[in-house]
Amino acid sequence: MTGPEREQAERPTGAPEAPPRRSGLRNPDRAARGLGAGTLSLEAIVLLLAIQPIRMVGGDLGGTAVGVLVGLAVAAMVLAGVMRRPWAWPAGTVLQGLLMLAGLLHWSLLVLGVIFALVWAYALHVRRVILG
C-alpha cells in the first residue's frame, strides 16, 4: 500500500477526515507567532541601535525622541513575548503607527516607521496565507 492508501486503511470507519493543512506546516499557528515575534524583536533591536547614528547624522535628536525610541523598543519586545494573545497582532499594528507618528519628533523615525510598517504588513500577509 502507498502512503495515502495506508492512512485510509488505518483510519477507523466513520471517523471524520481531518482537513488538509493548507500551508504544509506541522504547526502553522506557531510558525505565524514566530514570524511576528521575530519581526518585533528585530524592530526593537534596530530601534535601539538607531539612536546613536541618528544623533550623529541627523542632528537634533532630543531626550524626548530618545525616550520615545526606547519606549517603542520595549513595547516591541513585550509584544514579541506575548504573541500567543489574540490582541498581539493588532497591537503590533498600532505599534507601527506609533513609530510613524514619532516621525514628528525626527524625520528618520518616520522613515523607520514606514520601513517597519511595510515589513509588518508582509508578516500579516504571510500569517493570513499560512493560517488560511
TrEMBL record:
Signal peptide: none annotated. It comes from the Bacteria. Residues 1-10 have a biased composition (Basic and acidic residues). Residues 1-32 are annotated as: Disordered. The chain crosses the membrane at residues 63-84, 104-124. Keywords: Membrane, Transmembrane, Transmembrane helix. InterPro entries: DUF4233 (IPR025327). This is DUF4233 domain-containing protein.
